[in-house]
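Teaching assistant here, posting this on the class forum so everyone can see the example we discussed in section. The complex has two components, and the goal was to see what a joint structure prediction looks like when all of them are supplied at once.
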Amino acid sequence: MSQATNNTSIIGARLLDLTAIPDTSTDVHIVDGVICDKPATDSQIIDATGMVLSPGFVDLYARLREPGLTRKGTLASECHAALAAGFTTLLCSPDTHPVIDSTATVELIRQRAQQAGGARVIPLAALTANLEGQRLSEIATLRDAGCVGASQADQPIADTSVLLSAMEYAATFDIPLLLTARDPQIGGAGCAHAGAVATRLGLPGIPAATETIGLARLIELCRDTACRLHISRISTARGVEQIHAAKQAGLSITADVGIHHLFFTEKHINGFDVNFHSSVPFRSEQDRDALRAGVANGTIDAICSDHAPHDTDAKLAPFPSSAAGLSAFDVFLPLLMQLPALLDVPLSKILSAVTTMPANILATETVESTLAAGKSANLVLFDPAAPAQCTSANFLSQGRNTPFLDCDDANIHLESGLPFTGKVHTVWLRGVPTTFIQ
Amino acid sequence: MKQNDPQFNRFGNLHHFLTLDGLNKQTLTGILDAAENFTSINDKSIKNAPLLRGKTVANLFFENSTRTRTAFELAAKRLSADILNIDLISSSTKKGESLLDTLRVLESLQCDMFIVRHSDSGAAHFIAEHVAPTINVVNGGDGQHSHPTQGMLDMFTIRRHKGSFENLRVVIIGDIKHSRVARSGISALRTLGAAEIRVVAPNTLIPEYVEALGVKVYSKLEVALKDADVIMGLRLQNERMNSATVPSMGEFFRTYGLTEDRLKLAKPDAIVMHPGPTNRGVEIAANVADGKQAVILEQVNYGIAVRMAVLSITMGHGEAVREAQMAGAS
């Protein structure tokens, strides 16, 4: 007796994976969980005309909040929200409670995530014990336990000699470091970009110099240690220039930007809107435009979600005391769909920034992002033109902290004049489909 | 991005008083005119007006203050309101109760108005956004953002002495960066049409892009004071000395202290203002603070009338104030 299989043929979609297949419509078959040239005899057929088939998205930075912060989000809630947004792999930031600096925590996260279903979770190791920036954590052991890289989350290492040592040690084991460029002191008490808006609102500022000085420190140490350095969540025009120069100089440096930073600027915090309080602040229009140009010309390799779900109470406070960060998964795809027009680049370029590029940055067999035949089927099929719904009724992340929630017109915040569209049809995780719209 | 000005209700009336930023000239002048009327009440032997009889006003001060709180208290009492002083610095918020929980408790005491002082910029906006719609919120100072009643009493003092704002050259000296008084003053002066606003301080006390507020930045006090009509000092907090912003009180006074000699560079009829409490020998020389050009104590006195105006207008008595004004004139 034959059992029902998940064998599927996806017919007529636009296939987007620049590395494997040219950007033209063709068919893809999934047989026994693997991408194949030919269909199986029992393949179900999905008519995907008008839709896009892409490798599943890979997120280089998301906060999943479990263990310890489950009032903000759980692995179950966030992994399902991520899957519905097209992500098949999430790098979970280490700032959980306890932080990810022991194999026990890695194990716990992996097990909980597996039980939950949803997108696959790969923890990022805390580079220093308890993220305190003093002692190194056991990153080689943590790598063996399943971490693909190490990070300091939002807490820069204050002592430069510790940072140097950490980078030397990571280079020994070829462990990529995903670090945010931030001077440990400048802007430490700030809550908004140090610009005209913060000055008018009397908000303590975070100067652009905190990023440029932080970057200079990281770049110089990268030069000396030859470690694999990925700059997480860049925010300034000058920072983009520094990364460009470092790449020109032949350093092994890559960078990403949080998706919201490609849209929002300091002016969005007008009226003390806590929805726009972000740990890496939204900066000037000129900075935002430089980030867009950086993605378009490849200086910025990847786009991450910088997902930061919060409980309602965390945002119910005056701006400086409100928790920083935006819930990103539920709006990720519609935001992404705005970028080809805004950056004047093909959709394939934008998709590579959330698929092949992040996979290449990690350069590990654990994370693959491809439509190539013979590879495990981690795919997303989506309709780029279907109107996005971001209502309380269908919101999936536990963190409701986004300005787009129940917002009648997304253009109030985006000012792009473009439709807010993009809906995931089906995501395949190792060949197993989850369908979101019929 | 917030779309609407939360200070106005749906009928376009001033319902909260949170910031001077965004209030037009007519609104500001209306407050000054109303305050003018209340000063005449304050000069009488019986100083009460019954405008807010039966209303309860709560002073919610999450930050230390004696002067501002007393001025609000007196203003509310002279309008015949019941006033509730709640010391929040040592109570609930220290116990980990959230700001919103504290508000809910106070709401249930059936207060009609909250006067709020808080160390977070935007705290008054936050409270206005979350209180019951029947409650009016008046900002008594939020972080480094705004101190609108201080701003208005400063404008009142200037108008009393100078008649109008159009041709005035105003100099603000000192800690602009951390000062909500400076921000409110600058905003009101711009709206009321002051000819020129100068700020002068070491760069450590000047915030980024301050020019966008419509001011000219000076480093040298002697240059900034030239031909000034109004000179406003600001209090320099002691903590600035410990944070590498200013090396010492002595050096600050030597470079930015308002002395008799420097005052001579301004117009002979220039007035000297300060929100208090003054640091004599730091921002201002004692003989200038006590000198004939100083109007610092007048500011304190006018503060009551201005706050009476603000309280009555936000509580929907703008009309009554105007009538009282007519009666007073006849």
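For the discussion questions: The mean pLDDT of chain A is 94. The CA atoms of residues 103 and 189 of chain A lie 33 Å apart. Think about how each of these relates to the inputs above.
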